[in-house]
Amino acid sequence: MKSAKTDSQRTRRFGAQDSFRMNVIPPFLSPGDTIGIAATARWITHEQLQPALDLLHSWGFRTRLASNVHEQIFQLAGDDEKRTVAFQQMLDEEEIKAILIVRGGYGTVHIVDSLDFSRVEKKPKWICGYSDITVLLSEMSSRNISSIHSTMPISFPVATADALENLRKALTGELREISWNVDADLNINLKNVRVTGGNLSVIYSLLGSSSLKMPDENSIIFIEDVDEMYYHIDRMLMGLMRAGYFNKAKVIIVGGMTLMKDNTKAFGFETENPWGFSPEETIKRIARERQIPVLFNFPAGHQNDNRAFFLGVKSELVVFEGKATLHFQH
Fold this sequence. Notes:
Elements: H1 7-15, E1 34-38, H2 46-58, E2 62-65, H3 80-92, E3 96-101, H4 118-122, E4 126-129, H5 134-142, E5 147-149, H6 161-172, E6 177-181, E7 188-199, H7 200-206, E8 219-226, H8 230-242, E9 251-258, H9 279-289, E10 294-295, E11 309-311, E12 315-320, E13 323-328
């Protein structure tokens, strides 16, 4: 399928990224509104999806499934063209007020350049998800449209009550803050900032593309990841640092760094050949080099307590006496 973006369009958007304006906030949902259920990467079965549909309906929303949600081509929910066409319909249908992606995995990057976001730019809607869906969240950020980093239907049965309730509140506009405990002895009060970022591996893979808007002086960078080697984390952070990704950011907040492993027998490898530095130690080093405060334990990522929060919404960050709170101003 032919790309919806020309090379000149990509160059213009990439070259204009340094200009700052607060993101557009899509309309919040009310009972009776329709949520599109899409699959831009992996597929989901009827049985896996039903608990999420039941919960969304209990919240008062209607749902509409993309045509490819149950398609299966190896790991993917249909080939690239089917996933593109199905998601494009979700983007273009005015009745759909938000799009919730069923699961991540890998594959969204294959379709993002073939999507036409022109209607969404005129009439924004919420895109919700995490992990591989960072591709779409980042694409929305590059277009100055806010989005929701959240759990997805595949994880609804194991998600914490807070994770699910935060998603409901985010969709309806009731989500005003998110708090967590930090072990850093810091006092921070930042106004007029916004959170950007997502899955570290995906951010790294988008480096140099029009989908990745470099953080500016009003940015708080959020990162999380899963199932990576210790040295992979170092490599990705070094690449982002050398590209200037951390140059202007005010703070780094870190969610789950889940199922990480070093090249040692303790992690099932045959030899002891450790990188030696944990992901947390590597992140602290990068933060020190760029003189950026770093806050761990943010309740989001590849974990059951994956609480929804806004990307791109005007916010205030307050850190005092071991507690951090992001206040969303919308």
